[in-house]
Amino acid sequence: MAPVCVLVGAMGAGKSTVGEALADALGVGFRDTDADVEATAGKPIPEIFFDDGEEHFRALEHAAVIAALESFDGVLALGGGAILAEKTRAALAGHTVVFLSVGLSEAVKRVGFGAGRPLLAVNPRATLRHLLEQRLPLYTEVATLTVPTDDRTPEDVVTEIRAHLRR
Ligand code: S3P
């Protein structure tokens, strides 16, 4: 079993919005590894970062990605930083992985003040600029398709992904 599609991309790329719309269109389930991590830890992501540290969060995240890749056949969205781990990128090999790309201005607009996203607690714009630059090569490394999302509706993005999936 494997997800019909794995969505990667930065915070604000639209993974949840597009993922839910894509899952609806395909008649399959939607799953988000952030939610899986929160369920395992029994607390929201900001509390995991605060209480246990980012390293612990990343370990839970890697385990959540591996579990979902093995047991889920719908549309799977990964947290924006999941691709930081080399072993997570390796596990994505052979899967259909769509990178939702987003420019800095649009990402800033979509995440607002970064509520619920601990990495954006201080200076969200500068942090996002850094993360987008640092992670771009990692997203493209794992992606089988890159779809720009700036100035596009979720429906438009879904149509492009479905053409790639041929379903
Ligand atoms: C993170 C992105 C978040 C969440 C956590 C860390 C990151 O997920 O996993 O706050 O490192 O980019 P979203 O991309 O779904 O917001």
Q: TL;DR of this structure?
A:
The chain is of the alpha/beta class.
Your description of this structure?
With 167 residues, this protein is α/β, with parallel strands linked by helices. Helix content is 55%, strand content 11%. It is built from eight helices and five strands, in the order βαβαααβαβααβα. Strands 2-3-1-4-5 form a five-stranded parallel sheet, sandwiched between helices. Helix 6 (104-111) crosses helix 7. The mean pLDDT is 97. Shikimate-3-phosphate (S3P) binds at residues 11, 15, 34, 45, 79-81, 117-119.
Structural class: alpha/beta
The termini sit apart by 17 Å
Strand order of the largest sheet: 2-3-1-4-5
The secondary-structure element order is EHEHHHEHEHHEH
Task: List the topology elements.
Blueprint: E1 5-8, H1 15-26, E2 30-32, H2 33-41, H3 45-52, H4 54-71, E3 75-77, H5 86-91, E4 97-101, H6 104-111, H7 124-142, E5 145-148, H8 154-165
Parallel strand pairs: 1-3, 1-4, 2-3, 4-5
Helix pairs in contact: 1-8, 2-4, 3-4, 6-7
The structure holds shikimate-3-phosphate (S3P).
Residues 11, 15, 34, 45, 79-81, 117-119 line the site of shikimate-3-phosphate (S3P).
Descriptive terms for the model:
167 residues, alpha/beta, five-stranded parallel beta sheet, 5 strands, globular, binds shikimate-3-phosphate
